[in-house]
Amino acid sequence: MGTKDDIKVIVVGGGGAGLCASIAAIEAGAADVTLLEKTSKLGGDTILSGHIISAGGTPLQKQAGIEDTPHQYLIDLLNGGRFASDIILAATLVQNGPMAWEWLSEHGCQFPGPEALHVQHDHMLARSVKLGPPGMLALKQAAEDRGVKILLDSPAQSLMLAGGRVAGVVVEKDGQTTEYPADAVVLTTGGFGRNKEMINTYCPKFNEAVSWNSLGITGDGIRLAQAAGADLVQMDAFRVIQSGADVRMKVLHPTYLLAQIRALGGILVAPDGRRFYDEMGRSFEMVYAAMECGPFYFLIFDAKMATPSQWLPEDTFEKQMEAAVADGMVVMQADTLDGLADQMGAPNLAQTVEQWNADVATGEDTAYGRKESLAPIIEPPFYAIRYKPAIVQTLGGLRINSQAQVLDASGRPIPGLYAAGQVTGGVHGADYIGGSALLETAVYGIIAGRQAIADA
Ligand SMILES: Cc1cc2nc3c(=O)[nH]c(=O)nc-3n(C[C@H](O)[C@H](O)[C@H](O)COP(=O)(O)OP(=O)(O)OC[C@H]3O[C@@H](n4cnc5c(N)ncnc54)[C@H](O)[C@@H]3O)c2cc1C
After folding, report:
1. What is the pLDDT of residue 248?
2. Does the CB atom of residue 220 touch ligand 1 within 6 A?
3. Ligand 1 within 6 A of 275 CB?
4. For the CA atoms of 240, 139, 427, 221, what is the dihedral angle to 10 degrees?
5. Ligand 1 atom having least distance to the Cα of 392
6. Residues 186 and 293 placed together within one structural domain of the fold
7. Within this chain, do residues 200 and 336 fall inside the same structural domain, yes or no?
8. 20 CB within 6 A, ligand 1
9. Ligand 1 geometric centre to CA of 163 (Å)
10. For residue 394, is it left (φ>0), alpha (ψ between -120 and 50) or beta?
11. 55-69, 147-161, 279-293: which range is least confident on average?
12. Number of folded domains in the chain?
């Protein structure tokens, strides 16, 4: 254990939370901060993200004349997460939101002007912005300027334990292990959306789901901390979205087509051809309902709905379908519903569409009470596009307290061990609301870095 002026901190995982924790630790007085990143570049999911970040009660909102408070944000967050969040963690997040925005801005992140504030999904107020490029990765410069050592291609393999505390990290590289002793270790390794085995263990219904996560997101931090006695929370909470391919930049066509065609009257059916949910309902619940019926589902529509998506207006419908196929989507087309059903192997399709058309004629969806976008599916050719859920975030993970200390099964902090960002669980509850995950990486990254020094 070092004195205050020779404290060594190791941060494991070079995404948003890792950069925040590294900078916060060095600014709080650490003599030596090393950031270990498993892959050959920093960024993780943070660089893949939409760079949307939210906070309630910010000066930017004041400038725009928007009255908001952390408390109002908390209500939306709890509601969006269906009241499954750890209330203390959620409250800590929103309370520190304005501080985190200011901190990010001071450390090089580009915030737009007040006109860019907008309402993200599941928020009641305009409290979100998109950071300018490169999002939170702008922090890399601030980290380097302050002397954080960044080591790429350096996967943490295990934690060193000594005297009842975490005492460093072992890295395995090219078959060689290197020990990095430290007074404190901060885990910021992201979620486990790329780890099939963990998904199978904690939420087998997503076995067939594709992943939008970056390649390093394999739950390493969870495994490392478990070996030191860490407790886990809400490991079956996922943020999922409808998709078809597993590379985010390639899923735009199918994602946009789904949104557009549903709004024109398209329906969703399970592998056997039956509907399973109000297609205009909440995406998250729709995907969960789909998963009760099988590993994939189909979007069904007809010729009059076969129009280019409004988000890609320069393309024809045919061009967008070709792009969807190139992205790995399964697209089917037939002149009759029976012909389409044969291709899909969906015996109930014709009957489902017949019922849908009858319901549209009376204006009442007798199956799921869908209120919007009722239109008949009658004009050949008929189309089916196969969708699968995609994992965007795993919401469960290491149990922490509001000081970002990792807790054991009896709720006691494990000395020397901290965690922040998507490797942790409890902040979001059952679902995520727009821009809250990046805020989480900032708020808890900063808290973790500072607490590591305060405890040393
Ligand atoms: C497509 C997409 C869009 C999103 N858009 C938004 C959005 O707009 N707004 C929002 O709030 N949230 C969004 N999210 C969620 C958000 O991006 C993540 O929750 C957040 O970036 C996670 O940050 P993190 O620092 O915890 O982890 P990451 O940014 O994923 O970083 C973790 C890092 O740890 C590294 N690592 C893993 N294991 C090891 C190891 N053993 N040793 C060393 N390094 C290791 C990984 O390689 C990775 O670089 C989005 C997510 C996705 C996938």
Report:
1. 46
2. yes
3. no
4. 80
5. 53
6. no
7. no
8. no
9. 32
10. beta
11. 279-293
12. 2
Secondary structure class of 20 (helix, strand, coil): helix
Asked if 399 and 365 sit in the same domain, the reply is: no
Co-location of 59 and 162 in the same domain: yes
Give the model confidence (pLDDT) of 173-197 as tens digits.
Answer: 888 999 999 999 999 999 999 999 9
CATH number, domain at 270?
3.90.700.10
Domain range for 48 is 4-236+395-455
Q: Are residues 210 and 77 in the same domain?
A: yes
Handedness of CA 27, 28, 30, 33 (dihedral sign): negative
Q: How far is the CA of 438 from the centre of ligand 1 (A)?
A: 9
Contact 14 CB / ligand 1 (< 6 Å): yes
Mutation choice for ligand 1 from 189, 192, 211, 400, CB with most ligand atoms inside 8 A: 189
Q: What is the DSSP string of 49-66?
A: S--EEE-SS-HHHHHTT-
CATH code of the domain in which 128 resides: 3.50.50.60
Residue 209: pLDDT above 90?
A: no
**Shared-domain flag, residues 216 and 332:** no
| pLDDT top residue among 352 and 386 | 352
Asked if 435 and 126 count as a contact pair (C-beta separation under 8 A), the reply is no
Query: Residue 82 in contact with residue 237, Cβ under 8 Å?
Result: no
- Identify whether residues 209 and 271 lie together within a single domain: no
Residues 104-123 have pLDDT tens digits of 999 999 999 999 999 998 89
Q: What is the mean pLDDT of residues 442-447?
A: 98
pLDDT band at 2 (very low <50, low <70, confident <90, very high): very low
Report how far residue 366's alpha carbon sits from residue 256's, in angstroms, rounded to the nearest whole number: 27
Tokens representing residue 212 in the block? 């939008």
Looking from the CA of residue 421, the nearest atom of ligand 1 is 26
Taking CA 435 as the corner, what is the angle to CA 434 and CA 441, rounded to the nearest 5 degrees?
135
Q: Choose one of 360, 375, 391: the last residue of a domain.
A: 391
Pocket probe for ligand 1: among 173, 187, 438, the residue whose CB has the most ligand atoms within 8 Å is: 438
Angle in degrees, CA 71, 75, 80, rounded to 5? 145
Residue-level pLDDT at 237: 92
Residue range 387-444, pLDDT digits in tens: 888 889 999 999 999 999 999 999 999 999 999 999 999 999 999 999 999 999 999 9
Going by alpha carbons, the residue nearest to atom 5 of ligand 1 is 49
Shortest-distance atom of ligand 1 to CA 189: 34
Does ligand 1 have an atom closer than 6 angstroms to the CB of 212? Answer: yes
Among 391, 410, 440, the domain boundary falls at 391
Say yes or no: 252 and 384 in one domain.
yes
Atom 51, ligand 1: residue with shortest CA distance: 49
Q: Which protein residue's CA is at the shortest distance from atom 27 of ligand 1?
A: 190
How does pLDDT run across 239-258, given as a tens digit for each residue? 887 765 544 444 456 677 78
Instruction: Give 267 Cα–ligand 1 centroid separation in angstroms.
Output: 33
Q: 23: Cβ below 6 Å to ligand 1?
A: no
